[in-house]
Amino acid sequence: MKEAAPVSAANASSKPGPVEPARVPVAGAFADSSGEARHSTGVLYSYWENRGGNEYYWAYRSAASIGLIPTNDDATCVFLAVPWPRFRAAIDGSARQAYERLIRDGFPAIAARLHDAQRVEPVRGFGGQLGFMRQGIGPGWALVGDAAYFKDPLTAHGITDALRDAELLARAAVRGTSEAFAGYEDVRSDLSDRLFEITDEVASFAWTDVQVQALHRALSSEMTREVRFLDALEPFPTLAMSASEGVAV
Ligand SMILES: Cc1cc2nc3c(=O)[nH]c(=O)nc-3n(C[C@H](O)[C@H](O)[C@H](O)COP(=O)(O)OP(=O)(O)OC[C@H]3O[C@@H](n4cnc5c(N)ncnc54)[C@H](O)[C@@H]3O)c2cc1C
């Protein structure tokens, strides 16, 4: 993740973010009938060395979440996510100052630990985007990953789902029938809908400590269901090719 650029919206190292969280046109249907999430967070992050430990840490407080993720080169990604309205109010000038202030205000113990650490990258940001669930297939096309289904990054599960969908779509493409592609869409929807809904609830920050714990248990249970499904897949069909025969499945 260290080299990953923000997917869209504001680069918070320049000033102010978007006027409102980015919206994208939504095709197809979703359980809440709009296909759109209702909540969005803004994220500020950077990389630190010598932060005194290398554990993975994540905390939720009212109106802010912080995470410490060990990454390459002995650096730690320290990100801060806040509800979008708060993000917009905080990014009034320098992203670096907003990042430091929000950490200090919400997580003083982490701020104290970072005091003697070295920030080795600029502060970057993601200005928020409302999640969406799009129709994933149509005549001659199919979508995977964020193009098909975007959820707030706060639950940190988009890479897994993008890889999952690439695997499932590749299997459908090898079978090559319209039933196979329809099956891809059904499975994608079945495995994604609850993850999408839970993520939106977590991103609302409208929970108590007990409720956010319950949301994370529900998230964990959905991720377990997803892993079990993938684990039970047959080995990927092999493609045999020879110059005279073309491709055989
Ligand atoms: C701040 C933030 C933090 C996140 N943290 C996590 C995390 O910790 N864990 C996690 O699992 N997920 C996380 N995510 C989500 C994760 O980054 C995405 O879900 C994931 O990258 C989606 O992969 P993708 O391949 O669908 O899309 P992308 O990673 O966006 O890749 C699409 C690529 O296609 C390129 N592209 C676009 N249009 C064209 C075109 N017309 N022609 C050619 N190329 C094109 C883009 O430049 C891009 O490189 C985070 C997201 C954000 C915004």
Account of the 3D structure:
With 249 residues, the protein is an alpha+beta fold. It folds into two domains: 41-126, D-Amino Acid Oxidase, Chain A, domain 2; 133-231, no CATH class. It is 38% helix and 19% strand. The chain has helices at 84-90, 95-106, 108-115, 158-175, 178-204, 209-231; strands spanning 41-49, 57-61, 64-70, 76-83, 118-119, 124-126, 132-133, 137-138, 141-142, 149-150, 240-242, 246-248. Strands 1, 2, 3, 4, 5 and 6 form a six-stranded antiparallel beta sheet that branches. The protein is elongated. The site of flavin-adenine dinucleotide has 15 residues, from α4.
Give the tags:
249 residues; alpha+beta; D-Amino Acid Oxidase, Chain A, domain 2; six-stranded antiparallel sheet; two-stranded antiparallel sheet; disordered N terminus; binds flavin-adenine dinucleotide
Lay out the secondary structure:
Elements: E1 41-49, E2 57-61, E3 64-70, E4 76-83, H1 84-90, H2 95-106, H3 108-115, E5 118-119, E6 124-126, E7 132-133, E8 137-138, E9 141-142, E10 149-150, H4 158-175, H5 178-204, H6 209-231, E11 240-242, E12 246-248
Antiparallel strand pairs: 1-4, 1-5, 1-6, 2-3, 3-4, 7-10, 8-9, 11-12
Helix pairs in contact: 2-3, 4-5, 5-6
Bound molecules: flavin-adenine dinucleotide.
Summarize the structure.
By secondary structure, the chain is an alpha+beta fold.
- In total, the number of domains comes to 2
Overall helicity: 25-40%
* Strand composition percent: 15-25%
Which parts are unreliable, with pLDDT below 50 for 5 consecutive residues or more?
1-19, 25-33
Tally of extended strands?
12
- The geometry reads as elongated
Distance between the termini: 35 Å
Q: Let me know the average pLDDT.
A: 85
Order of helices and strands: EEEEHHHEEEEEEHHHEE
Q: Based on helices, strands and strand pairing, what is the structural class?
A: alpha+beta
Q: Which distinct ligands sit in these coordinates?
A: flavin-adenine dinucleotide
Rg, alpha carbons:
20 Å
**Major sheet size, sense and barrel closure:** 6 strands, antiparallel
Question: How many H/I helical runs?
Answer: 6
